[in-house]
Amino acid sequence: MIGVNYGRLGNNLPSPYESIELIKTMKAGKVKLYDANPEILRLLSGTNLHVSIMVPNDQISIVAANQSVANQWVRDNVLSYYPNTMIRYILVGNEVLSNKDDQSLWYDLVPAMRNIKKSIDGHRIHNIKIGTPLAMDMLQTSFPPSSGEFRLDIPRNSLLIPLLRFLNWTKSYFFIDVYPYFSWSQNPSSINLDFALFKGTQMYKDPVSGYVYTNLLDQMLDSVIFAMEKLGFYNIRLAIAETGWPNGGDYDQIGANIYNAATYNRNLVRRLTSQPLIGTPARPESTIPTLIFSLYDENQKEGPGTERHWGLLLPNGKPIYDIDLTGEISEAEFSKLPVPKNNGPFHGKLWCVLAKDIVNEMDLGQALEFACKRDGICDELSPGKSCYQPVSIVAHANYAFSSYWAKFRKDGETCHFNGLAVQTTVDPSRGSCKFPYVSL
Question: Where's the X8 domain (predicted)?
């Protein structure tokens, strides 16, 4: 049963009612919320959708420290809707162990899970599993899969083993956010694209386990399994809390396109819904509950372009490509996909300019001030310098954005500026005013 993540970081998105209707139309089996939104939980009442709700990261510590707070959280967010709303998972936090800057939160994770579990047990609720979604970056090594091992900075005895012991004791799932796109896009010369999209004939044999792999997702999942086994846990089930492929991105983001996104998600659904079940080489014929990220393109997200292009639907609710979450529709029945044009690295020059000519001047002024705070970025915008004319906030912002991005892209800065900027291949230079650029 394939589900979707209900991402809401966008503007002008369909209403919760319309969104639930869209999810039902898509024949999803599950929906995962990143909170416990009361309106959405009410709208899910009476549907057949299995629902996952979340204790946000900023509430973990107080839930961990006080059983009465955990009890109140369960009363407010579970008992108010259950059982008419089919809440089946409570996820405590989101990728908590990826945040190395707040390690105190790490140690509150398992106590919070225990308190939530104690509370639902007190109400004799036995069909809700408690877990926490973790990212692949919690592994120290993941290739070959048999070498899978958790990061060495995550304490074994005081954190990892209690977490795994809790999941094992409660017969819950190890929820993993797993994105073959990132593994492939960071190593496109060593990982075959078709292998990442479930469509290749390439096979890889693990030199230690002897397992044969035909796709990248199975390798990544099995590396988690091997990491758990190294700590003595052999039977904890896996669930995929997030997976998917971006349908678009920036010029310098290889392979982010509609063709690859549709291919990955369609093949993923077929593989996971096949009968008999396939599982993975380390766990053949196993059921893997899976949620695709995400329902919508989230156009308000920060970061590189791919961050805003994981959706199955546009922000207006229209499908980006055909997909069937039941796995029953054949590829031949889908509409033809656009030919991918960026499966290889981009070569050329890129500038960073305003996304549109008419913008909120206050927002633009703040972005311009931010860019020009860094030494040397806006020197050419000073009176008498080559880019001073024309004296307009739009012209100056265009230069500042390109100058800032060209200098700091290598440090991880993106051409976004709160949604005001986009990459372009068209040189915006004018006369003697030469715009800095990124050359790839």
Answer: 350-435
> Per the structure block, which two tokens stand in for 211?
């397992």
Measured CA to CA, the distance from residue 231 to residue 229 in angstroms comes to 5
Tokens 């990892």 found at: 160
Centroid of chain to Cα 92:
17
Domain ranges of the chain: 3-33+133-333, 349-439
Nearest CA to 297 among 310, 288, 287? 310
Which residues make beta-bridge pairs with 439? 349
* Cβ-Cβ contacts under 8 Å for 30 (sequence gap 6 or more): 1, 2, 3, 4, 49, 50, 51, 52, 88, 289, 291
Residue 178: phi and psi, rounded to 5, are -130, 120
Residue 95 designated active-site: yes
Collapse the DSSP code of 221 into the 3-class scheme (helix H, G, I; strand E, B; otherwise coil) and give the result.
Answer: helix
Catalytic, 285? Answer: no
95, 149, 229, 413: the active-site residue: 95
- pLDDT tens profile 168-199: 999 999 999 999 999 999 999 999 999 999 99
**Whole-number mean pLDDT of the chain?**
95
Pairing relationship of beta strands 2-5 and 30-32 according to DSSP bridges: parallel
The one catalytic residue in 21, 39, 229, 242 is 242
> Closest by alpha carbon to 307, among 316, 294, 291?
294
My answer on whether omega of the bond before 83 falls inside 30° of 0, hence cis, is yes
pLDDT of residue 346: 93
Give whole-number Cα distances, 176 to 19, 45, 95, 427, in Å.
Answer: 25, 27, 9, 42
What band does 362 get if pLDDT is binned at 50, 70 and 90?
confident
Identify residue 84 by its one-letter amino acid code: N
Q: Check if the beta carbon of residue 207 is closer than 8 Å to that of residue 144.
A: yes
Task: Provide Rg for the chain, Cα atoms.
Answer: 24
Hey, what amino acid is at 298? E
CB atoms within 10 A of CB 369: 11
pLDDT (0 to 100) of residue 358: 65
- Report the DSSP beta bridge partners of residue 239: 175
Q: Whole-angstrom Cα distance, residue 18 to residue 64?
A: 35
Q: Which fold has domain 3-33+133-333?
A: TIM Barrel (3.20.20)
Contact status, residue 260 vs residue 341, Cβ threshold 8 Å: no
The answer on pLDDT for 224 being more than 70 is: yes
